[in-house]
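Kindly review these tokens for lecture notes.

. . .
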Amino acid sequence: MKLSANKVDPYVRSFSAKEGAGKVILLYGRDQGAIRETASQLGSCFLGKDADPLQKIEFNETELSGSPAKAVDEASSMPMFGGDKLVMIRGQNEAVRKAVDLVLREAPMANALVIIEAGNLAQSSGLRKLVEAHDCAMALPFYEPDAQELSSLIRQLCEAEGYSIEASALAELSGTLGADRGIVRREIERLILFKGPRDKKASRETGRITAEDISACMHDQSHISLDMLVDAVSLGEMEVLDKSWGRLISMGTRPEGALTVIRRHFQTLHLVVSQIENGTPRQDALRAFRPPLHFKRRPKVERQCNLWSSRKIEAALEILHETERACRQTGARTETQTAYNLMRLARAAGR
């Protein structure tokens, strides 16, 4: 089955654990931020707040290559301590299509939900056709918001934090952030942190976001240094990595904050490289980056696509996840260990 784009939000809002049981849900489109958020929302709704980690299993398309039946085994197996089962699949290659086909034909998955996070799929896509034709499957499209929808989203996010936004600032943000809802939400969060918590007793002027705020926050020196750090790690530029890391730490940047930015870059790079490996033209695949790549930075990211394969990026993401988790669990400033792991990744870029 398939839904039109204007029916996706009502479907997600009314989604229940009972409705999700025994289903396959395909999320596809250019708005990767919305896809990730919706997949997380559906999964949390299906499993509930107190779900056991063993109730959830994740696959990427590389892990399913050569053995798509893994998805069937997981969808039809009972978690160790009972309850429902959530199977998350990220990717859209032929292995994913075969896995979904096997699940729909063979898996007795009365207590399971399978969610697939894919990229932009043409109407002729085998994966999309398979899901749209099956009664126990649902295809949800996520198209990039138009200019009016994007402006409305930005205004709503600001107002939710007690801020209004000037027309000039709204135009600047709309033109800078691109159309990925996930990116927009993260950048607005950063903007609100820059402005500080809204004091309800403060004057109206202090509760307004101006074009000057956008310029100061979105184009500050730390943001530039973070881009330098990300590219240094991705390109294997050890000297630039050392200098940009030292500069960020001296400016008060926390290691986990920098790691989050690097991890998000590698996640998007993984999507881009996977699409290129599956035959998508490079210029089309690079559109996954949001905000859109600046013309000065674009050649650097194109070089990164040559240096990294999807398998190498998956290994890098494991290192980044573990390093970020260690930083957050210890609560300590672990600059040395983080720098060491970033150097490991930079060395891997040149291999």
Notes: The chain has a mean pLDDT of 83. Residues 256 and 327 are 6 Å apart (CA to CA).
